[in-house]
Amino acid sequence: MPGHRSTGAGPGRALVAVYGVFALAACARAGYQIATRWHEAPLAYLLSAVAGLVYVLATFALATDRRRTAWVAVGVELVGVLTVGTLSLLDAGDFPDETVWSAFGQGYGYVPLVLPFLGVAWLWRTGRTAHEQVAPSR
Fold first, then answer.
1. How many CB atoms lie within 10 A of CB 42?
2. C-alpha distances in Å from residue 23, one per residue of 40, 122, 133
3. Is 103 left (phi over 0), alpha (psi -120 to 50) or beta?
4. Which tens digit of pLDDT belongs to each residue from 51-103?
């Protein structure tokens, strides 16, 4: 899109860094759980792996200014955290162990709940041209 700001520049660098940390944390946790305790909670561990892959995709897309991919990743992340968060509270029996998105990311200080909203806000802000960001004067 001509006239947009890069998603990986300025404050976007901090957002990319947070996504990168969550990608590493979620993938490492899921990898360990799948390798050592798969039989205990396969759904939870698989969902953590999916969350990790979504964070990897979002990190890459935001860092390299691949806006469409970033919108998809952040959208999947938002739907995932809201869905898994709700289901994990309504029917805890289906989640005998926590996922990254369980209880809306409670185990991670609710950052998984806030992060997609920050991602959407940043994509929206950087997708508008400088002219569009300034309120018209009358």
1. 14
2. 23, 18, 31
3. left
4. 999 999 999 999 999 999 999 999 999 999 999 999 999 987 777 888 899 99
